[in-house]
Amino acid sequence: MLKKIVKTLIFFLPFILGTIGFHIIEGAPLNDALFFSIGFYTLNNTDPASNIFIELARWTAPLATASGLIMAVTALKQRLKDFFAYLGGESIAVYGSQEDISVILGQLGRRGIRIKDEERLPKAERYILMGQEEENFKLYQKFENLLAGKQVYLRCRSMNGRASGASMNLFFEEEIAARIFWKKQSLYDETGRKNFRLNIVFPEFGILEEQLLLWGLQNNIFHPKQKIAYHVFGESGKFQAIYHELSQMEDPVIFHAGQWYDSLGLLERADRIIVSDTKELLGDLLFAIPEKCIDVLAESREAVLHYESRERLRLFFWRQEAEKLSNILEEKTLDRAKSINLRYAHLYSGVEETKENKEEEWGKLNTFTKYSNISSADYHEVRLLMIEEWKQKTGKSEPDEAYLLKLAELEHIRWNRYHYLNNWKYGVPQNEKNKDTVKRVHKDLVPFTELTREEQEKDAENIRVLLSVTD
User: Fold this and answer.
1) Is 207 exposed, middle or buried (0-12, 13-18, 19+ CB in 10 A)?
2) What is the mean pLDDT of residues 233-250?
3) Cα torsion 204, 208, 213, 219: sign
4) Which one-letter DSSP state was computed for residue 131?
């Protein structure tokens, strides 16, 4: 906005100078002063200048005219480029600072449209808002009617408690990185080799580590009797206050009051040590715990080049993964979540399974239910990995009823954890229903073995549904 004001003032400066020179200094009538000053822009006033104001106006007006024409031509050219990008199909408009969006626009190529003007929204198939969080929401609200029916991906770090519209998908880089990390660094084989007992240590606890913990709890579920312990060092008071039902989970989350160097024995026994700090912390860990392999979520290759013991580092370049367009859009996971929801709508409400109904039913969901489906769809990749291994071991082509029941138990554990992470707890609602969304209590938040046979079979049916709508 300020930039527009400055440009406007510069353009009208010759007009103001000329008016001052003719009217105030020379005493010409105001209407004549205005007329003569406008003439400077088109080189119509060629009379000798009688004072410094008129002289300045004579020289700056043509420059202002030329600049205005250049800006007009540039704007027209950009609008035509954006228009043809839209006509070409699969266009994505991106909002944010040049630094934030340059990588995304580079991946989009001709499909990319930059939103430069907050007063005008270019036409596009989808939109990615990567500005400051509040700016993103203001822009979305301003053009909410125009964005109706379009997929909008909005960067938002404070996702807790946020409402998301029918077509709004919230994301931020650390969350994306955490989800991709657990997929690429799957603990499935390692957990099986170690009798389903693991110790994972976070020597420090920043935003990235928070997301690693949240998504690790939802995706690292491999066996009903597993004990994957997550040890957290560093400032975590606020996190514990926000996620106050963590103790309900089978996998313990242990928050240590001291610093990591007070528990070297634990770090030496740990199965995974995960750090995102590639400065002082990583150097201290490599020196203090010889021969120990460390998982490093580094922003770039340059950040780890100066370490001698690079062979002891399992490197994951999280920024690179988080800025991949495919990981931001998460089209497969999102479509899988929508398909799951539509199938349930079909089974329980008779909704026809069409493309239009898939989007319409998704738009009816509140934020909690929407992201419950996304969590389920995300974990399904782990399930498919386990099913593939089971097929290879047994020689069977499809899961039998016994294995299906085991998968149902794991899905129930994930379902429980999603609720715990949203601060639900076990309780029997007074309305004699399964749940009370206001008090956040649900009568099925119990171990799988404590469910009725009917409820267990319902979970098994959920697995059949997931396998029938996904691959």
Assistant:
1) middle
2) 95
3) negative
4) S
pLDDT surpasses 90 at 152 = yes
Cα–Cα distance for residue pair 413/20, rounded to 1 Å: 78
Smallest CA-to-CA distance from 319 within 209, 204, 208 is with 208
Domain 176-322 adopts which CATH fold?
A: Rossmann fold (3.40.50)
Distances (CA, A) of 353 to 356, 411, 461: 8, 24, 18
* Amino acid, single-letter form, for residue 44: N
Q: What mean pLDDT, rounded, does the chain reach?
A: 88
Indicate whether 164 pLDDT > 90: no
Q: What is the pLDDT of residue 470?
A: 62
Check residue 48 and report its DSSP letter.
P
pTM, full prediction: 0.83
Kindly report the length of the chain: 471
- Residue 254: phi and psi, rounded to 5, are -110, 115
Number of Cβ within 10 Å of residue 11's Cβ equals 18
Class of the CATH domain delimited by 340-469: mainly alpha
State the Cα–Cα distance between residues 390 and 292, nearest whole angstrom. 32
Q: How far is CA 194 from CA 228, 248, 292, in A?
A: 10, 24, 17
Give the integer Cα–Cα distance in Å for 51 and 61: 16
Task: Give me the residues paired with residue 254 across strands.
Answer: 231
Three-state secondary-structure class, residue 425? strand
Confidence band, pLDDT 50/70/90 cuts, at residue 59: confident
pLDDT at 365 over 80: yes
pLDDT of residue 20: 84
Report yes or no: 154 and 167 within 8 Å, Cβ to Cβ: no
Amino acid present at 359: E
Q: Are 187 and 226 in contact (CB under 8 A)?
A: no
Q: How many CB atoms lie within 10 A of CB 21?
A: 24
Phi, psi for residue 120 in degrees, rounded to 5: -135, 130
Q: Give the neighbor-by-neighbor strand order of the sheet with 441-442.
A: 425-426, 441-442, 435-436
pLDDT at position 74 over 70: no
Q: pLDDT tens digit string along 175-199?
A: 999 999 999 988 999 999 999 999 9
What burial class does residue 78 get, using C-beta atoms within 10 Å of its C-beta: 0-12 exposed, 13-18 middle, 19+ buried? middle
**341 — phi, psi (to 5°)?**
-65, -40
Q: Which residue type does 198 have?
A: L
Tokens of 198: 């693991």
